[in-house]
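In this section we walk through a basic example: taking a raw amino acid sequence and producing a predicted 3D structure, encoded as discrete structure tokens. The instruction is simple. Fold the sequence below.
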Amino acid sequence: MLKTKAIELLGGAISTAAKEIGISYQAVEKWPDVLPDRIADRVIAAIARKRYAKQLGLTRKDAPAITKAEA
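The resulting token sequence is shown next.
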């Protein structure tokens, strides 16, 4: 997965991507252009938590609500 695609999928900004995954802005900024599997897996997990929070029985604290634009 490309860094740019991961950031796009997580909200379009480094700060938003960092918040979604629970890491610092600086950590996302240091990601390589092609993400290793361990980081790509975290991106995918964050997207799944956000998208399927209700079905997984997660609370809002666990996963932010998805907006209509993201649905």
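Looking at the output, two observations stand out. The longest helix spans residues 37-51. The two ends are 21 Å apart (CA to CA). In the next section we compare this with other chains.
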